[in-house]
Amino acid sequence: MHTLGPLGILELQHGGVIVVEGNIGTGKTGLCDEVRTDLLTKGVVPDDIIIVDEPSIGTPKGRDLLEKFCDDPERWAFELQMFMMTNRHATYKRYSVIAKREKKIVILDRSLLADSVFAKANRGRMKAEEYAEYEAAYARACSNITPPMMIIYLHSPPEICLERVKVRGRACEMDMELEYLQTLDGIFEEWVGSLEGHMVRDVDWSFDKHSAEGAGTFRERIEAITTDIVNALTR
């Protein structure tokens, strides 16, 4: 039983960082929003939930580098990946402090932890010395962060991810090929398998939540995730 205050507010004993990862087009952003909504129904105060969108693409430099990468991957793969990794590292450290100091639930939509997945997928577009430099920088970045409270890994077949990418219609993704998503899928599976000592929720997100059957599955999986979060933060 969770402790509710006199106004029906859930009293968090501490804060925590929750990382949401998965292939491009899996549905991470939608899941983050749904988790927030369900946490509110459990008595969590809105101000106690912070959702942090992809920290790099939303910046002018990030958008510029992504466009350049789409036009000329071999020329810009290394610079884009280093920019992403540096920004994800800074974001992770900043919000880890906020979660602990202010007892906040911080949900990161993509993070430093899986940055290496994309670097490996684009390794063939980098020079050997560039990839070695990235690996060394990534190892240093990961060595001085605290583990997240939970990692939510969403997985869907690459074919479904591609369909979702086309539906959302981002200009820089319209030429994305199935082969690239298949490569990412394989690397993500290896990455998840390496996460010893972490609280990982491996969630199948391949269903259609708008169908009768899918709607029930959707509610069950959101409920399971938010229950785990509440349990972890109230004990």
Can you give keywords for this protein?
alpha/beta; 11% strand; 8 helices; Rossmann fold
Overview of the molecule:
The chain has a single domain (18-233), classed as Rossmann fold (3-Layer(aba) Sandwich), CATH 3.40.50.300. The chain has helices spanning 28-41, 60-71, 73-102, 115-121, 128-143, 158-168, 178-193, 212-233; strands at residues 16-22, 49-52, 105-109, 150-155, 200-204. The mean pLDDT is 91. It contains eight helices and five strands. It has a five-stranded parallel beta sheet. With 235 residues, the chain is of the alpha/beta class. α4 (115-121) crosses α7 (178-193) and α6 crosses α7 (178-193).
Short synopsis of the structure:
This protein has 235 residues and is an alpha/beta fold. The protein is 54% helix and 11% strand.
Shape: globular
CATH topology: Rossmann fold
- H/E element sequence: EHEHHEHHEHHEH
Distance between the termini: 10 Å
Count of DSSP E strands?
A: 5
Q: Share of helix among residues?
A: 40-55%
Please identify the oligomeric state: single chain
Strand content: 5-15%
Mean pLDDT across every amino acid position:
91
Structural class by secondary-structure content: alpha/beta
Which CATH class? Alpha Beta
Supply Rg. 18 Å
Number of helices: 8
> Quick one: biggest sheet?
5 strands, parallel
List segments where confidence is low: pLDDT < 50 over at least 5 consecutive residues: none
List the helices and strands and how they pair.
Elements: E1 16-22, H1 28-41, E2 49-52, H2 60-71, H3 73-102, E3 105-109, H4 115-121, H5 128-143, E4 150-155, H6 158-168, H7 178-193, E5 200-204, H8 212-233
Parallel strand pairs: 1-3, 1-4, 2-3, 4-5
Helix pairs in contact: 1-8, 2-3, 3-4, 3-5, 4-7, 6-7
